[in-house]
Queue: 4 jobs
Job 1
Amino acid sequence: MKRLLWLDVAKGLAIIVVVYFHFFRTYFEHGILPPPDWNGFLAGLTTSLRYLWLEVSGLGFHAVGVFIILSGWALMQSTARRAEQGSVDWRAWYRSRFLRLYPMYWVAHVVYVISPFTARFEKIDGRFVLSLLGLRFIDISNTFYYLNSSWWYFTLLIQFYLLFPFLFITARKLGPITYLVCACALGFFVRYLLLVVHPVDGMWVQGGLALCRLPEFALGMTLAIWDQRYPKRLERFLLNGPAFFTGVILYPGALLLYASLTTYIFVDLATGVCCFLVLVGIAGIISRAHFLARVIALAGIYSYGLYLIHQPYVIWLGLRIREQPIWSFLLIAVVTVAILTIWGMLLEKATNRLVSSLLRERPKAALSS
């Protein structure tokens, strides 16, 4: 399957933003920031830029919504191309997808347990088994963020994978627009029930129940269909400026949706879309610089491994540089993201290679026995 460079760059930007956000939150919550100084033009400009940096950095968690959109896009794109060659063998599809997900997820657990320089705030107990299985929605208040809070996303992914054959067939029968409207209506209805009618732990809405994030995932699937039908038109909008400016203009309105529980029903889709438009627009610019694009695309290709392993490291380091000035933090953040990207890439490549070799060896072992 042909890879779209700009799509990998967008994934790379999204994972870098997520890693940076977790690093920033640790530093900012415990760091020492100089008091504001509005006296004089340069002092006022510096203070304004500092507050702008704080506000923009605080939005980094919206990049998770970008990942949900891109996951729907990638799954729809690859499965649709397979369907063009004949009927989809869903048993083989599930096998390949879960072999892609679980081994690296288990490796991340091992790395967390044995690796130095990681933040550890919880003990290993019975929840560890639930975490290994990806069942972090069981006893959700105690397991959802257990050990590594980023791992909640794995729970969301496996639910979408389980639902995907139904979503795929429905999207092809209804068509992209009708499917997107129906998926959004279902997702918003479930969010309304869990937020307003019968309020529950917010972790269910965040991703403990995948239907609550169905609008973003369905949007990604819809974009994949449009990209297959109108690739030049869609990429012209996404990569040549209109998407970026649209995202920037709409972002303040999306943030207003945090005002109440009723409007919060729509906030994850709205902020995810705005962040998606901005990052894809930036990816379009970066894609013109081939060397930089390929470097960031590597982070995108191996974003799964980086996502799984980064947070305990950046929390550990962030707590130890809390007295450093902002410029020093930013420099350390760049170096840290680069090192963790390489580490995550090596782990993911080694894991995939090991799984592939074991699967190839299985028939020989069976014959020899």
Job 2
Amino acid sequence: MKIRYFAHFSDDAGCTEESISGPATVMELLHLLADRHQEPMRSHLFSQDGQHASDDLFLLVNGRHLRQLNGLATPLNEEDTIAIIPVTEAG
């Protein structure tokens, strides 16, 4: 699947786009990205307790917001494109 990063997420990842294989759901993808890129990516993706996605995270799967899908349980496949966009700019 293709991951597209916007704003400070591209700084966190060190790229604007990358390909990833494996995660079956959006939540698994977020954990994989947090493990791969560490801080500050982890704190930008997750709430302070680390148990929930950050409220400042706007995610699109194939152009559709998670609210239109199954939230963090949305299934993913290798053909998907995921956009990771901050609601507010970190700084």
Job 3
Amino acid sequence: MQATILDLRYKMKDVLSALDRRESVHILYHGKEKGIIFPSNKKTAKVANHPFCGSVPNSRKSVESVMEGLRGGRYRDI
């Protein structure tokens, strides 16, 4: 996809949609290419994969103990 500076300003949704489709976006300034935006190679994390979300309904652990395990302590207990 090619996008001008004005496209970046007023049509950012279209630019982000192109990146979601794994297309690179060529940035034009006064008709000349100034740069290229490439889609990220990182996989996006889903909320459902977080250890606390979608926790097992029959779990015997309390919410407080699960949260304490996720957060960890402020100081190391000796």
Job 4
Amino acid sequence: MKRYRIRLEDRTYDVEVLDDPRQDQVRVEVDGETFVVGVETVAAVDSGEVSPGVVSSPVAPTPKPSVVGGSTVVAPLPGVIKSIAVRAGQEVSPDDELVVIEAMKMDNLIRATRVGTIGTIHVTEGRQVTYGEPLLDYAD
């Protein structure tokens, strides 16, 4: 859609807005990495007019975790494991919270996409994860 080059604290970023900015939430790509941000209407300081502006939401919409072969949940984005809401042997249902990944100061809730029993948990709180890295396995 639209591309921008922004400068923040002596660093330059290439930013592309991937969705219509009139939506409540949009995807933006920053230096090749995709993030979801909330969009709110803010008052323009100079003109007194109201114009759309992009602001980050405190909790990002839930990224869809990838499930490899139906048994391994992998990180849908890079970040730091903020919390793990399940333990091995626990039964989960769709939409149950599994893990929270913090990325760019936003909490991204990773939720179960199916009914199952948690098997191996591959991550620990405070650990950095990369895109596609295994988070946990279903035992069944």
